[in-house]
Design brief:
The protein folds into two domains: 22-51 and 312-456, Alpha-Beta Complex (Aspartate Aminotransferase, domain 1), CATH 3.90.1150.10; 59-308, Aspartate Aminotransferase, domain 2 (3-Layer(aba) Sandwich), CATH 3.40.640.10. It is globular. It has helices at residues 22-31, 59-65, 76-89, 100-111, 125-132, 161-171, 194-206, 218-228, 237-245, 272-285, 296-308, 312-332, 349-352, 362-374, 414-429; strands at residues 46-47, 93-97, 117-120, 137-140, 178-181, 211-214, 250-254, 265-269, 344-348, 376-377, 379-381, 402-406, 438-442, 453-456. With 457 residues, the chain is α/β, with parallel strands linked by helices. The termini are far apart.
């Protein structure tokens, strides 16, 4: 008999979590203006708002933390991190930052100018925000099949090569670089195939454009290439990572995801011009070049985390837990972006709350209902996150409207996944009674979903 699947680690420390009553949650979410970002952590039972910075570090990472070199300049921790990044990515130049959006801010301050067009696959909120704040355009060239949540495709995060070439022809000199997000978070945590990245690189070479990878979950993307793409089954994750980054000129990374640290990020590139252009902005916005926005101890922990999380067993444990939650939702007939992604389940909110019009934000409404049901905090990745069109100021309803349940790494057990699944089932069972959503009472001009104030209709 084949042995059942089990985690590739054992538990050494636990943190208590508290249940709450429905009455308490109703009061708390009202005080938070129906925005789960405004809840206090102790008001949450199972926290799935993000997998960013919420993972559990290993014993090796905690040990490395104690050896951190906090020298302002030339810290050994930086060179330790730099060497690890070079081994995994092949990129020569490394600039540490305090997180992924800081890496974007530093690099885009050099690369992105007013009027530019940046084509890519479903730019994430901070990426799009940094582009649009500079009065440039984030042009989505994701394959159309990504919008069909019930379609089973192995690489639903792919760039549509025809759309990309059309953009390169139409906008020509206005395009400073192409961006590829691995995995494609906004499309539902969906991976990008190696072949698709090769096709993007070929087009980039044809039109003489550099390629940047948004790489927060590059290791998970490599796992899917190994398990889903022909010719990669016998390659290690680290070999696939090197092949991946050979197709790019540089990367930005929120290390809070696949680096499994609580804070950190970096820029890495093979282009000396990008390094020289960006490093002044690092000093201006983040800190000196050998610490950026990071402590020495955190750079040490990140070096270990990158090494650990580019090994198959660690990734398999993580991704199998997401798959387990997907299997439970399948039992209850709850629609989500298929197939299950690497870091989260993305529930198709308009297919659940069929009576809530798009103008009343079905995914945000479902997020609130799940919290009220069981104290589970998810995150809307949909119409609120999409913001308004920067020119017309109309809400952008062209994408997909999803409730993201992001699973922190090495934090919860499958018992927690069962609680999540049953709580969603309870909401799903009473979906016909949910006929109204929420409306915006106040919003920021950009990246509104973090601070928006909503009213329940």
């Amino acid at each position: 008999m084949e042995l059942p699947f089990a985690e590739s680690w054992k538990i050494k420390m636990v943190e208590p979590i508290r249940k709450s009553t429905r009455e308490e949650r109703e009061q708390w979410i009202k005080e938070a203006y129906y925005n789960v970002f405004q809840l206090k952590s102790e008001q949450v039972y199972i926290d799935l708002i993000t997998d960013s910075g919420t993972g559990s570090m290993s014993d090796r990472q905690w040990a490395a933390l104690m050896l951190g070199d906090e020298s302002y300049a030339g810290a050994s921790s930086f060179f330790n991190l730099k060497e690890t990044i070079q081994k995994i990515t092949g990129f020569e130049y490394v600039i540490p930052t305090h997180q992924g959006r800081a890496a974007e801010n530093v690099l885009f301050s050099y690369l992105v100018k007013e009027g530019n067009v940046i084509p890519g696959n479903s730019h994430f909120d901070t990426t799009k925000g940094h582009i649009e704040a500079r009065k440039a355009v984030a042009l989505d060239c994701t394959i159309d099949d990504a919008k069909n949540t019930q379609l089973e495709l192995p690489f639903k995060g792919n760039v549509d090569i025809k759309k990309l070439e059309d953009a390169l022809q139409k906008y020509s000199d206005r395009i400073p670089f192409i961006i590829v997000t691995i995995t494609n978070n906004t499309a539902g945590g969906q991976p990008v195939s190696m072949q698709n990245m090769k096709d993007v690189r070929a087009l980039a070479n044809k039109y003489n454009k550099p390629v940047l990878f948004d790489s927060a979950r590059f290791a998970e993307n490599a796992y899917f290439i190994k398990t889903r793409e022909e010719g990669y089954q016998n390659k290690t994750i680290k070999e696939i990572c090197l092949e991946t980054f050979a197709l790019a000129d540089g990367m930005t990374m929120s290390a809070k995801k696949d680096g499994i640290v609580n804070m950190g990020g970096f820029i890495a590139t093979r282009k000396e011009e990008w390094f020289e252009g960006a490093k002044g902005y690092c000093v201006q916005y983040e800190g000196y070049l050998t610490y950026g926005g990071m402590n020495g101890r955190d750079m040490n922990a990140l070096a270990v985390g990158l090494d650990e999380n580019t090994e198959f067993d660690n990734l398999e444990t993580r991704i199998q837990q997401v798959a387990y939650l997907a299997q439970r939702l399948d039992e209850f007939g709850i629609p989500y972006q298929r197939p299950a992604g690497g870091h989260a389940i993305f529930v198709d909110a308009p297919k659940v709350l069929t009576h809530v019009p798009k103008e009343e934000f079905p995914a945000q409404t479902l997020t609130v209902e799940l919290y009220l049901e069981a104290g589970i905090r998810g995150c809307e990745i949909g119409y609120l996150l999409a913001d308004r069109d920067p020119i017309t100021r109309e809400n952008r309803f062209g994408g997909i409207d999803l409730l993201r349940l992001a699973i922190p790494r090495r934090v919860y057990t499958n018992n927690h996944m069962d609680v999540i699944a049953v709580a969603l089932k309870n909401v799903f069972d009473r979906r016909e009674t949910i006929t109204r959503g929420v409306r915006i009472a106040w919003e920021a001009p950009i990246m509104r979903h973090f601070t928006v104030k909503l009213e329940k209709l």
